[in-house]
Every structure is written in C-alpha cells, then in structure tokens.
Amino acid sequence: ELTCQLLSFSKVSDNSIDSVSDRDFIMEFISHASICMVHLSRLSEELILWSSSEFGFITISDAFTTGSSIMPQKKNPDVAELVRGKTGRVVGNLISIITLMKSLPLAYNKDMQEDKEPLFDTVDTLKICIEVYTRMMPNIMVHREVMYDACRTGFLNATDLADYLATRGMPFRQAHSVAGKAVAHALRLGKELDDLTIDQFKTFSDLIEPDVFDYLSIEQMITRRISYGGTGYENVKQAVQQAKKELNP
User: Fold this and answer.
1) What letter would DSSP give residue 142?
2) 13: which of 19, 29, 67, 139 fits an S-S bond (Cβ 3.0–4.6 Å)?
3) How far is the C-alpha of 122 from the C-alpha of 31, rounded, in Å?
C-alpha cells in the first residue's frame, strides 16, 4: 500500500501474476491511438482531395505544403499525406503488440521487452500528428464560392423534390419515381434540376408549383435538415459549441 501511495497508483493490484504479465494497458492505449489516427487519416484524405485542382475547395498554407522537384506549378499537401501514411504505422504497432502477447503464458516473459518500441513510437507519432494538425487547420483557406457552385451540380436536390411531392400528399414511393424521371429529363437536356421550367416540372406532376424553386435551393435544402444530428445550419452551430465545451470543460 505504501508503494501504491508513493507511485500515485489508483489502487493495489489484486493479483501479483496479473501485475507482471498484463499488457492490456498498452494494447488499449495503442488501440485508442489507432482509432484517433484513422480519423486523422480520413480527414487527411478529405483535405488532399479538396485541395486538388479537380476540387479546389480549399488552399492549404504554404507552411504545410511543398513544391514538386520537377513540376514548378505543383503544390503537394505533404502534412496531410504524411499523417495519412503514419496511420498505417500506428495500426501496425497495434498488430505488433497484440501478436506479441497472443501466445505468451501467464507471468512475465522476456518477449515483453518488445512492448516498448511500439508503445513509445505510437506516443511520439500520435503527438506530432496532433500538434501539426492543430497548427495546419486554422491556416486553411476555404473557397466558399467554389463549394457553393459544386453543390449546384450532381442533382443533390433530387431527394428534396421527392420530399416536396410527399409533403403535398403523394406517396413517397411514387414521389421517388417522379423525381427520378425529372432528373433523367434534366440530364438529357444538359441541365440541373432547378434549371427546368415550371411547365417542364408539371409534365411529371401537377402537384408541382412555382414554390418548388425555393424548395430546391441550396439554402433551403440545408436549413430543412433540423432533425437531431442533422446538417442544418443551427444543428452544426450547436455541434461546434458542444465540441468546444468538451475540449475546454
């Protein structure tokens, strides 16, 4: 008990064999670290895609990118790519420690000396990845107009057309079919759904009125997502506030 107090342990170990043979705390830590790195990796993939010329949604600060050794115009999202790559390293450390422990008998075995490298490497890798991300994220420039224009393509409002018809009494199964036909017609004309005229809309259903254009607007589409966990403006604001509270209790 004195040793427990001096080392600030929460309690005395209940089993002496477990005390020397258990490495669950290492496996648990690296498991949590792996999950954290997977989230960073997925975020990295988004940033890499969004910063590409094909998307152009964001610009990552020059402090976190490099140029190409051969192409003068190229800007490589190095930090995001390296974090994505280091995720495999941390997940590999998890597999390493689990494989190390899987066949050991109870009590201490010299094999356990191999637990230090994956543990320390995971701590160092996770720490530096989080640190660099906290510096990089505030320095990302978001191109709102490009994102807005992208939302107008791809018929993102097709489901909203079906919802519009459903709110006017049409069974959703039928509304789904009508919306699909309207999309197919717009595709043949090389137009987006909200570029169709009211007369063209009415060829698919007499329930469609001129207010459909407001209903299909990007702003209205987002505003209507008000269910719990939805992506409406107010929902996102509340989610951000909640996240800030959790990070700064």
Assistant:
1) E
2) 19
3) 10
How many CA atoms does the CB half-sphere of 201 hold within 13 Å?
Answer: 22
Q: Return the amino acid letter for 66.
A: T
| Residues in the chain, overall count | 249
Q: Do the first three CATH levels of 2-142 and 149-247 match, i.e. the same topology? A: no
Residue pair 243/237 in contact (Cβ under 8 Å)? The answer is no
Which architecture does CATH list for 149-247?
Answer: Orthogonal Bundle (1.10)
Distance in angstroms (rounded) separating the CA atoms of residues 220 and 225? 9
Contact call for residues 40 and 82 (beta carbons, < 8 A): no
Beta bridge partners of 59: 141
3-state helix, strand, coil in the chain (%, to 5): 65, 5, 30
Cα(92)–Cα(54) distance, integer angstroms: 32
- φ and ψ of 206, to 5 deg: -75, -10
**CB contact burial 130-157 (16+ within 10 A = b; e otherwise):** eebbeebeeeeeeeeeeeeeeeeeebeb
Q: Name the pTM for this structure.
A: 0.85
Cα pseudo-dihedral 146, 149, 150, 152, rounded to 10:
170
- What architecture (CATH level 2) is domain 2-142? Up-down Bundle (1.20)
Secondary structure tally for the chain: helices H, strands E = 12, 4
Per domain, the residue ranges of the chain are 2-142, 149-247
